[in-house]
Amino acid sequence: MKSSDPFVAVENIYTPRQRYVLLVASLIGLAALMVFGLAQYLTAFLAAGILFVVFRPWWLALVHQRRWNRQVVVVGILLVTVVVLVIPFYALTSLLLDRLIAFAQNPDRLLEVIHKLEKATGFQLTEQLNVRQLLLQGAAKVTGWLPTLASSALNFLVIVGLMLFTMYYMFMQETFFLLGLHRYLPFRNETLQELGESLKNNVNANVLGQVLVSVVQGVLTGATLLIFGVPDAVFWGVVAFFAAFLPVLGTPLVWGPAALYQFSQGNKGQAIGILLVGFILIMNIDNVLRIVLAKRMGNIHPLITLVGIVLGVEIFGIIGLVVGPLLVSYFMVLMEVFRRENRQHMKLVVNSPPEHKPVTPTPEKTE
Q1: d(Cα 327, Cα 211) in Å, to the nearest integer?
Q2: Which residues contact 63 (CB under 8 A, 6 or more apart)?
Q3: Using alpha carbons only, how large is the chain's radius of gyration in Å?
Q4: How many other C-beta atoms are found inside a 10 Å radius of the C-beta of residue 124?
Q5: Confidence class of residue 280 from pLDDT cuts 50, 70 and 90?
Q6: Residue 168 CB burial class (10 angstroms; 0-12, 13-18, ≥19)
Q7: Would you tell me which of 165, 292, 297, 362 could form a disulfide with 204, CB atoms 3.0–4.6 Å apart?
């Protein structure tokens, strides 16, 4: 029986190979279009994935082992996220942005300190115009890193809402989500395990461990500046908290200029005290904590962290402190997977028996 559809009998102009290539290209194009459309909200989905990894041990312990109600556990996780992470982060970054913008718009205090430092040292550090330009550029840069706070409160609420809703469905549909990753990601199970382990190590080292290190260093820096009479010690302690995410540089970016400030004011004893506490206590605590936490929470090389932070903050903003090192680690893992699988393929080619071509009989010569 013939079909009534007139398009059934029409011959397709593409070969199966061409249809396959076009299908893959269509999928990539649609995915790129979706990412482009959601670019300003991408941090919400990235943050949801990171927090899913952070809270998953709690989820496994409470839901899978103790058989607690899924809905209750998810609501509890979301409340902890809002109370412990969202509200303090908003308060700290708002304080940081407001003060940086105030410094950029009114650089007179900083210029006065620089002039005093020039008189005390005898060196011409910079021109007034350069200081104003540097302050304005610094404020604009930090504002670009924190787009959710630099824009409207509605945008911030939308991003937080998307993050919480994404977390809710990732936990409530955990099995479907994880099976989907195994089904649609183009990697073997061994590679997926390596990527998952790399994600876990990065989150542990750059979220849990790094936040703990930053809190300790921020508190110590703020307390040191308060003891030695530096103005706005609480504000500079908040700045030290964010600066501590940068390996190698870190809190010296805060207590170093604070010591110079006290020196410019003629308080040489207080300046020496800040330097001693900074070099002996704050930096050594940083080194000890990083070594201990690196072994316990994820062995991430400092160079990967440094390169990843520079890359991630430039692309993703503040969430790039975690996403950047993760991208670099994933690149390293995939390079290792490529090396291993390429070597296995070469071994198979070398060890495979040669193909025997059929021998065609040659005709006999007739005398």
Answers
A1: 19
A2: 70, 73
A3: 29
A4: 7
A5: confident
A6: middle
A7: 297
Q: Rounded to whole angstroms, how far apart are CA atoms 324 and 310?
A: 7
Query: Residue 209 corresponds to which tokens in the numbers above?
Result: 């461990």
DSSP string covering 162-219: HHHHHHHHHHHTHHHHHHHHHHHSSS-HHHHHHHHHHHHHHHIIIIIIHHHHHHHHHH
Among candidates 50, 72, 46, which has minimal Cα distance to 59?
72
Q: Of 324, 319, 327, 323, which is closest to residue 308 (Cα–Cα)? A: 324
171: Cβ–Cβ under 8 A, 6 or more apart, which residues? 52, 55, 59, 70, 73, 74, 77
DSSP collapsed to 3 states, 152-169? CHHHHHHHHHHHHHHHHH
What are the CA-CA distances from residue 15 to residues 7, 18, 279, 338 (Å)?
A: 18, 5, 69, 30
Determine contact, residues 251/286, Cβ cutoff 8 Å: yes
Residues in the chain, how many?
A: 367
Scanning the structure block, which residue is given the tokens 């824009």?
A: 151
Q: What is the DSSP letter of 318?
A: G
φ/ψ of residue 228, rounded to 5: -95, 20
- Greatest CA span in the chain, whole angstroms? 118
Residue 218 buriedness (CB in 10 A; 0-12 / 13-18 / 19+): buried
| CA–centroid distance for 342 within its chain | 30
DSSP 360: P
Mean of pLDDT values over 317-336: 75
Q: What is the pLDDT of residue 68?
A: 92
* Closest-CA residue to 51 (of 246, 236, 172, 204): 204
> HSE on the CB side for 38, CA within 13 Å?
15
Residues 252 and 315: beta-carbon distance below 8 Å: no
- Sign for the CA dihedral angle at 228, 92, 117, 283 comes to positive
- Whether the pLDDT of residue 341 is over 90: the answer is no
